[in-house]
Amino acid sequence: MQILNSILAEHGTKRVNGKVASDSTSSGYTDVLTKCFRQLLELGFKLQDPRNIGEKHIEALCRKWYAAGIAPGTMKSELSRLRIFCGWIGKNGMVRSLEEILPDVDAAKLKVSRVAKRSKSWSENGIDVAAKIAEADELDWRFGLMLRMSLAFGLRRKEVVQLKPWKSDKDDKLAVYEAKNGRPRDVYIDTLEQRVVLDYVKSKIVRKAGYLGWETTERGIPATLEYSVGRYNRSMAKIGITKSEVDVSGHGLRAQFAENAALIAQMIPPTLGGTAGQMDRGDLNVKRAQVSELLGHSRISITAAYYGSFGRETTQDEVNRCKKNIEKALQQCPPENLKPVPVDRLPDCTKIITELAALEIVINVREVQMLWEIHSQRHALAWTKPVDGNAEAIEAAALRIFKQQQIPLPDID
Questions:
Q1: Is 304:284 a contact under the CB 8 Å cutoff?
Q2: Tell me: the pLDDT tens digits for 309-345?
Q3: How far apart are CA 14 and CA 10, in angstroms?
Q4: Can you tell me whether residue 222 is helix, strand or coil?
Q5: Which residues contact 31 (CB under 8 A, 6 or more apart)?
Q6: Comparing C-alpha atoms, which of 173, 201, 165 is closest to residue 189?
């Protein structure tokens, strides 16, 4: 490990083009290479000197990754880091393509797809978002604010550290100026919770021209963008959010925002169990475009990277799909396990019951409370205020019960 650290210290702070690498790039090399050599040790290879790595070691790693079901994109990314490392130690050309290393594997299975096959969101991967935000608050109050804004407005890492909350608050929307590819966007404030988050953040960032990101380093000198991004990455690792530990990243909050935005638009995304037949294809594409714009993209196809693809199927779902999903979920929840409903929640529950009654769904206040709590947790809250059109959010909560209990989805006649 000492030799590896020495090599990283010499080369890891530089890009391939010779320019100084960012903190995230440097830490990326360190994380991936350290993990790879640890995996080689687990495979029985006792490399005393990492410079002795050879083709058999590379192949062993690739076969381990493939057997573990690691996504092709992840495998190719880590292979790229190993390729650069081998260049540092004078072994250019030794690391071939993934397809060449695994010639016995169907090339189609090694093709990189940008379509999300499963949810990338924190909640759907078993992470208590509210607890992680509390943990972030304890670590660094600014970092806690960043997590709140990323979840509430779908901000990217660089966007959140460069955000000026007071400047960006445009009453009914959040103006994101420092956006990726120089494409500013407006994120409309559709829920009371978004407004509460933004007002809370503004109360903490007292200076009207202040950034959400760090303005000074831990040594007290002015912070650069590169410093803030690096500190953001380190903070995320400190609260245990890394691909290697929990198979999600900070970007998962943006994916969760995308799923939440879809539900607000009364569309269940594929990663939450939604189908292409839940509405007319034209209506579906309009809603996908709306979510895409909130994310800062002009193409609706990009939404597939965040919450999966609806495919080409155009057959409409049966009109009783929502009813069957919700009713079957409720069958798995014994009435004696349902909590009493606080008085202040009764109006919200009644609102949802009235809406579901139009779909001929018979449900009581305790059942509504249970399902709405599941939905509210996606916003890192115990309870959110229902807006107009909540059937899709309730159905998505029902689908989550199926997933957690591994219950087959109901057949739709």
A1: no
A2: 999 888 999 989 999 999 999 999 999 999 999 999 9
A3: 8
A4: strand
A5: 242, 244
A6: 173
